[in-house]
Design brief:
about 75% helix, rod-shaped
């Protein structure tokens, strides 16, 4: 009987530890998702202020090419002053 109680207690502790860790990881994931959402909103606001027409040019404002263009031309004045050559 004592052995059964000890085994149940150990099993209970392991279960409690697993559920505690699971709750911690779920909370951590929610925090990451919340931070990711906040950063995306910040990116969209900054891109919209810098390049108001960017939304019309790209279906996905987070695509590599859209973000590279925004990174390379951080201000509309840079685009205005840049000479582009016709490669067609």
């Amino acid at each position: 009987m004592l052995t059964t109680n000890i085994e149940n207690h150990q099993s209970s502790n392991i279960s409690d530890d697993i559920y505690f860790e699971l709750r911690e990881r779920a909370q951590f994931r929610l925090e990451i998702e919340s931070e990711q959402t906040r950063v995306k909103v910040e990116i969209v606001e900054t891109l919209h202020q810098t390049f108001p027409g960017l939304k019309k040019l790209f279906k996905n404002r987070y695509s590599i090419i859209a973000l590279n263009i925004a990174n390379q031309f951080s201000h509309p004045e840079i685009v205005k002053e840049t000479r582009f050559r016709n490669t067609c």
